[in-house]
Amino acid sequence: MHQHIIIEPFKIKTVEPITMSTEKQRLEWLRKAHYNPFLLTSDQVIIDLLTDSGTSAMSTAQWSAMMSGDESYAGARSWKKLEHVIHDLTGYPHILPTHQGRAAERILYSLLGGKGKVFISNTHFDTTRANIEFSGAKAIDCPIEQALHPSVRHPFKGNMDISRLEKLIREHGAKNVGAVIMTVTNNTGGGQPVSMENMKAVSALCKENKILFVIDACRIAENAYFVNHRETGFEGKSYKEIAQEMFSLADGCVMSAKKDGLVNIGGFLALRDNELSDACTNLLIITEGFTTYGGLAGRDMEAIAVGLEEVFDRDYLRYRIRSTEYLGEKIQEYGIPIMLPIGGHAVYVDAKGLYKHIPVEQYPGQALVCALYRIGGVRCVEVGSVMFGTYDERGTLIPAPMELVRLAIPRRVYTQSHVDYVVEVFQEIAAHARETKGMRITHEPKFLRHFTAHFEPVP
Ligand code: F0G
Q1: pLDDT per residue over 194-218, tens digit each?
Q2: Which end of the chain is more exposed for a tag (fewer CB within 10 A), N or C?
């Protein structure tokens, strides 16, 4: 039989009920949450596409490995197992476990950062930028030009702009560049992959200028899928071999295992350099825990060790990338403009394109986030001027380059009928697009404002 449909390559053994609700209930809950879905409780949500981070369903193999977790303070068996798996994958000699990705970022970037330093990335994720800026350093995004245009197709829209990178290094002086960071896939830029060719070019530039090259590897398995399918010369390689080759081009990585580690908590920092690793280890012990557990329980390390191998499974990755693509293709049929091509872990809706009548100062992305929740109980996050907007001295908004809304797909959690339901909600969104109102901020914190800001609809 020629098989067209790609089925979920797993059976469901444990289920978690979804609490259903009415539009009237949701409108009230949304008001109480100040129109910020981060402030809703999870049982007020029907389909939760807020993040693919820490929301994976674990396999039977992971759950059973957890039972053999060794909870010893030092030298736990579970740590040895995890260290072996990460070493085999990355090739880096020094591996530091952390409780999640940003803990690895805080350790590394607080040591490399500080006033006068700059970091250059294809796009810094929000916690990456926040950790860098908190140290007093500057974070500069350097994606290729095509990355900033949602409708422009490019097979590797996550790539770094090499000539601009060269210019930036010259401008700031190589010794002032704390690190060059490649985020794979590029989350904030639309979940877009980075090609091996681009990695090689960045790696060469960093070597030439003696600049540390770090991979933010939290979705490197998904990135490997795209390299295998889109880049010449990689058709015959396994997804894991492609990831291994990528790691070989850099000096180290930070990884939030909450994504392609297929777990609910965990992360690590891995490095080649002895001295830098020693300095990081000091900070690790002060702030996360001893070197053989970081901030993790032995059972967490067991689950990550299994997850990091399962994620490279051919059938899993094919299902994973195809199911994201399915959602994107279906909502496009209703005229919803999205970031193209469709990325790995999420579909990014172009809210500026959908709500042309809402000015960026009234946050079209936040308006869409609220409409999706009100109409269908679908929760997602704005990735636009709420997340990345800043103000000039006069308090005028400097908007983000794009106003996107991210529909992130938790791994192995939702079935095709859940996704079809989200598609139905979008049908309604499209039908009422012109009546949708903009939003304004009524309260905001200094850092990472999207998490806790309050909003209200513009009358
Ligand atoms: N880097 C990237 C590219 C990320 O996407 C994230 C987290 C982190 C670092 C930080 O890792 O959460 O384990 O501390 N992204 C989540 C998201 C929060 O929803 O995209 P963490």
Answers
A1: 999 999 999 999 999 999 999 999 9
A2: N
